[in-house]
Specification:
26% strand, Chloramphenicol Acetyltransferase, alpha+beta, Dihydrolipoamide Transferase, 3 domains, eight-stranded mixed β-sheet, OB fold (Dihydrolipoamide Acetyltransferase, E2P), five-stranded antiparallel β-sheet
Amino acid sequence: MSTQNFNLPDVGEGLTEAEIVAWKVAPGDTVAINDVICEIETAKSLVELPSPHAGVVGELLAAEGTTVEVGSPIITFVTDARDDAGPGVIATAEAPAPEEGGGSVLVGYGSGGGATSRRKRPAERPVRSSVGVIAKPPIRKLARDLGVDLTAVTPSGADGEVTRDDVVTHAQQASVFRNIETPEWGQVREETVPAPQTAQVGLARGLSPAPASASRAGDDAGRTESIPVKGVRKATSSAMVQSAYSAPHVTVWKEIDASRTMELVKRLKASPDYADIRVSPLLIMARAVIWAARRTPMVNAAWIETESGAEIAVRHYVNLGIAAATPRGLLVPNIKDAQDLSMKDLARALNRLTLTAREGKTSPADQQGGTITITNIGVFGMDAGTPIINPGEAGIVAMGTISQKPWVVDGEVRPRWVTTVAGSFDHRVIDGDGMSRFIADVASVLEEPALLVE
């Protein structure tokens, strides 16, 4: 018998550490390949860490709540060193290629586990259900989340296996209620333009950080609580400080009559084509932002510092970020190439994004590469706000609560559904006329969604 360490693997996010959130096994437990042994939290996501071994758990080397560097041992397995895979022998899983667009569950680690595969264990193979469908557990979970019946999916994988793309494609194949497309985007996805030197704003120099509060004693003992700043909160705070003190923010807003948006949402909810999709005013807001960004591309640009000076990257595509408040903190996943999606496809993408964020399973890839963001503060009952721009972007739009208010229509005061749209922008990238036109365009669509119909 021998003891083998398992080191914290690099989860492919370019990070160097992670927090052990919860152990799912205890010493003496018998585990199979790909059984979840613990949950870890990085600066971007909560990840279930599966076992690369089949065998017996020896010792847990890191306590829950501790931060561990990548490559450090976190658990040991008791190993029978015999070559034949008899009872109690540790068998190491082969490291399959990661599935494109995969979630946060890791399957296989390559060299991270430090052991060589001798044979492929049954636990690695796709699982065949009682109805004859071949699909891996993560694919089955995806199908459940999207409401897809696996027996109706046409498989494209080896040996008739249902793949992730098969499930997603099937979920998107229903006929579209109305094929509403944005104006065509250019073939060139991104270009750079010279940045105006007069617009550069630097950080203030020579400022000393505020002194830390002294420890309370005497009567104050036990009256305060210290919350460690780590994981998502640490990453968020760093990003917000970077954005607030490097990009000069300007915010504009407009109060609008969104009654026709509410009427459209009501019709979509009643449509059989949207029976399995959650529809909200956020869907119309997303379409409005995409449409308006096409008309004012600079809101979708970014300020880039280079060795030769600054430049502005103008993106001719929209990776639409949606700020999501989760139990783990603020996340901003984005929908890639949102400008290419129909209304129904965008609705499905928003549903998947929301569900994944709520479960704490947003992958790092889904949080990278955003070009412009929407924050729906209306869900908290807020009328308006001055949001901070997501780093790497030039604009963020806040949608306030939609409530009935008195509104003047044709000289008469009537009850209407009213909301406020606000936008914060990087003034180095876009001037007042551009940001005002953009917010006016967004407001116009919410007032009259028919503008989206070509």
